Amino acid sequence: MSYPLFSVTVRDHMMIAHSFRGEVFGPARALHGATYVVDATFRRADLDEDGIVVDIARATQELSDVLGALNLRNLDDEPAFAGVNTTTEVLARVIADRLAERVHAGGLGESARGLAGITVTLHESHVAWASYERSL
Amino acid sequence: MSYPLFSVTVRDHMMIAHSFRGEVFGPARALHGATYVVDATFRRADLDEDGIVVDIARATQELSDVLGALNLRNLDDEPAFAGVNTTTEVLARVIADRLAERVHAGGLGESARGLAGITVTLHESHVAWASYERSL
Amino acid sequence: MSYPLFSVTVRDHMMIAHSFRGEVFGPARALHGATYVVDATFRRADLDEDGIVVDIARATQELSDVLGALNLRNLDDEPAFAGVNTTTEVLARVIADRLAERVHAGGLGESARGLAGITVTLHESHVAWASYERSL
Amino acid sequence: MSYPLFSVTVRDHMMIAHSFRGEVFGPARALHGATYVVDATFRRADLDEDGIVVDIARATQELSDVLGALNLRNLDDEPAFAGVNTTTEVLARVIADRLAERVHAGGLGESARGLAGITVTLHESHVAWASYERSL
Amino acid sequence: MSYPLFSVTVRDHMMIAHSFRGEVFGPARALHGATYVVDATFRRADLDEDGIVVDIARATQELSDVLGALNLRNLDDEPAFAGVNTTTEVLARVIADRLAERVHAGGLGESARGLAGITVTLHESHVAWASYERSL
Amino acid sequence: MSYPLFSVTVRDHMMIAHSFRGEVFGPARALHGATYVVDATFRRADLDEDGIVVDIARATQELSDVLGALNLRNLDDEPAFAGVNTTTEVLARVIADRLAERVHAGGLGESARGLAGITVTLHESHVAWASYERSL
Q1: How confident is the model at residue A113 (pLDDT cuts 50, 70, 90)?
Q2: CA–CA separation, C32 and F113 (whole Å)
Q3: CA geometry: angle at D41 spanning D111 and D70, to 5°?
Q4: What average pLDDT does range E6-25 have in this prediction?
Q5: Touching status, chains D and F (3+ beta-carbon pairs under 8 Å)
Q6: Among the partner residues F1, F86, F132, nearest to E6 by beta-carbon distance
């Protein structure tokens, strides 16, 4: 990481069902669910000419769209997750990667192509959360 | 409500799957899930001789036990909820009523029999929550 | 207040400019601004036949609409507030009253006519907030 | 409680040491400590002529003064608490009563004499808090 | 970033009015306002001889002073921001830079000269915030 | 820091008494106390074969054990802290180091040996916190 560094974070949430495979998960191998409060952070070394990292309204909309493709579903039934444990960590990566695709596709605007990285944090409760941090 | 009024609240959480029946629920009629951050409040007009409303350690344990009977499950499969929409409001009532039974059974100690009421609040996300408030 | 009592709360926010008149406000008599994180609570004695206090999606939409008429404005320029100090307390009442009108007009659905009351809380910072509580 | 009802809340904190006497406290009978994040709520049926429940700046100052008399102390050494368990509930009452005295003494201004009640909530952690609610 | 790394953060807030120029801002081009809850983080590789990163009381005072020069104002009227969009990101940089000047001037004490960097985060609502991170 | 980077954080708390030596601490040189809400973050570059950074249940248990050795004590009486100011920063380091020992000893499971680092944050109030970040 080099300085200076700017970032903007927007928050939304999704509510899903899923189950896990593997001894380590104990009782969480049964079908259960979670609300994930999701924070998406966009990083860059300098601001664009409007004085922003990214348009907060557009970032909020893109995050909402990405979560909308997962929200109110049983992830065990989603082909994209066949054979995959949809842990909080894995979902953080999936959401970050999908946001990265949207940045590259221009969904956050032309100046957002100057973004250096994305971090996605999923809060699964008031006492546990997970993050995935990547470059762009 | 009459004054003075003391209360103590303890917080825990549970992670469940469920679905709803009824037009009003829209896409939430599909199987999905939620983390509920649960606040259980115990009320009374005066303190016991130790200077407390209820023993916080015992209250925390009883709440944990009540939530343990629901946690990491698909509520659609629970006989107790057959034919019932397990909305946030309904679950708040279920948890409050089960805590009330434990108070009456002495699970929170003898002095807890002096409790006047219980409120249970379930936070389903950072932007929505529901409460159920009852007397004892 | 009589028991039992159910409630549902939804949260949104608005960002406004304003100034105050009166010695008590000191430096806040100058034009400044605030983000208000707004919690709207709907209360009733029993649940409707779907097992809810009010449809959270509709409540969220109605709150968003009410805040949308205030958001991103200088309240000093709004005719509705001519001669009125738009304190946190006053705005809580305005928002609660506008939500009440929408309940009466059927905006939250037919079963929402069974609502007993509304509370609106405006958080002006992490260390100060105000509420207005009314019957319906 | 009758409606309408306005309230204003201000938040501050204090950091104290203490110990408890009584079997129920278990390991908390040893000298330990707590940060209490303290919320003081002032209630009244209508607003004063400035459109406020109470001057937030003055309420904040009075709360700070009341907490200042307890902050950074070992409550076991305070004569005011000789023979008293300084539980979260007891401290909530002490702070509410001291704030009430200040209201009656005019410390929150003349219009604050119209206040109907005070609630004080002490958060002892992210998972436990206690309140005391009284009339004025 | 190299390890180990210590940091201390203190929180305060300010309430300002402003408007933005540029198509990207949409309705936020109108005069509006914001409460910014401001977190100032001070970083260093090792602790001073008292076992601290920086004196929390002094850090709190310096942050309060820096925010006091912005608080309860219309930033559109401030010469320091002529021709500048006072976005959350820009304000985070301004506050971090002013804190850095105070560190260099000795305002946080002699040992604070050992600080390696500062991060300032401004929360504009419960669903959006921005940070600026710099070295010292 | 290199990317990608995963992390998992779990939260717990402890309540201790202590005093400080040194002019900088002012009134905090007297015996007082604190609740520390403690966040322990575990970092690694990739997930294990179960799709996790670390087993959240085990991480929660290990953190609870580490805090249990400090909780409900007067740290001035602990031989481990003789001659040491138990500041928030120092305690963050102590807890991180003790967690690191447990990782190395296998307490978080075999796959946790792949962890790259630990960060521990102690919140001493709603307006102040400190962190210690180290590699493993």
Answers
A1: confident
A2: 53
A3: 105
A4: 98
A5: yes
A6: F132
Query: What distance in Å separates the CA atoms of residue D14 and residue D68, rounded to the nearest whole number?
Result: 8
Closest CA to C25 of D57, A31, F57: D57
Q: Which residues of chain D make contact with F28, given a CB cutoff of 8 A?
A: 15, 72
Distance of CA B73 to the CA centre of its chain: 16
Are the CB atoms for C86 and C75 separated by under 8 Å?
A: yes
Q: Does D4 touch chain C (CB under 8 A)?
A: yes
Q: Note whether A85 contacts F60, CB cutoff 8 Å.
A: no
Q: Please provide the distance, in angstroms rounded to a whole number, between the alpha carbons at the two ends of chain B.
A: 13
> Chains that contact F by 3+ CB pairs under 8 Å?
A, C, D, E
Min Cα distance C70 → chain F (Å) is 30
Please give the pLDDT value at position F1.
Answer: 64
DSSP output for B97-133: HHHHHHHHTTTT-SGGGG--EEEEEEEEETTEEEEEE
Q: B126 to chain E: nearest residue by CA?
A: E126
CA distance B75 to chain A (A): 8
Distance, C-alpha C72 to centroid of its chain = 16
Task: Spell D69-107 as b/e; 16+ CB within 10 A means b.
Answer: ebbbbbbbeeeebeeebbbbbbbbbbbbbbbbebbeeeb
The C-alpha atoms of residue C61 and residue E92 are separated, in whole angstroms, by 32
Q: Cα separation of B17 and A74, whole Å?
A: 9
Look up residue E52 and give its two tokens. 């601290």
Q: Which two tokens stand for residue A85?
A: 């444990």
Amino acid identity, residue A93? R
Widest distance between CA atoms in chain E: 52
Contact between C89 and D6 using a beta-carbon 8 Å cutoff: yes
Relative to beta strand B32-44, strand A5-18 is unpaired
Look at A11 and E127 and tell me if their CB atoms are within 8 Å: yes
Chosen from D9, D72, D121, D129 to mutate, greatest number of chain F CBs within 10 A: D72
What is the average pLDDT across C100-112? 95
Rounded CA-CA distance D17/D30 in Å is 10
Rounded to whole angstroms, the Cα distance separating A44 from B115 reads 55
Say yes or no for a CB contact (<8 Å) between D87 and B9: no
Question: Is the pLDDT at A129 greater than 90, yes or no?
Answer: yes
Per-residue pLDDT at E1 exceeds 70: no
Residues within 8 A of C (CB atoms), B 31-70 only: none
- Confirm whether the ipTM is greater than 0.85: yes
Quote the distance between the C-alpha of residue F81 and its chain's center. Answer: 16
- Facing B127 at nearest CB: one of C10, C50, C55: C10
Query: What parts of chain F have a pLDDT lower than 50?
Result: none
Contact between E32 and C72 using a beta-carbon 8 Å cutoff: yes
Neighbours of C32 (CB within 10 A): 25
CB C128 within 8 A of CB D10: yes
SS3 of chain A:
CCCCEEEEEEEEEEEEEECCCCHHHHHHHCCEEEEEEEEEEEEECCCCCCCCCCCHHHHHHHHHHHHHCCCCCEHHHCHHHCCCCCCHHHHHHHHHHHHHHHHHCCCCCHHHHHCCEEEEEEEEECCEEEEEEEEC
Which residues from chain F sit within 8 angstroms of residue A128, using beta carbons? 8-11, 56, 60
Cβ <8 Å between E130 and A53: yes
Q: Please identify every stretch of chain D with a pLDDT value under 50, giving residue numbers as ranges.
A: none
- Cβ under 8 Å to C: F residues 68-127: 126-127
Residue of A nearest to E131 (CA): A7
Is the omega angle on the peptide bond into residue B79 within 30 degrees of 0, that is, cis? no
Does the CB of F128 have a partner CB in chain D at under 8 Å?
A: no
User: For the purposes of burial, counting CB atoms within 10 Å of the CB of B1, is it exposed (0-12), middle (13-18) or buried (19 or more)?
Assistant: exposed
* Distance (Å, whole) CA C129 – CA C121: 7
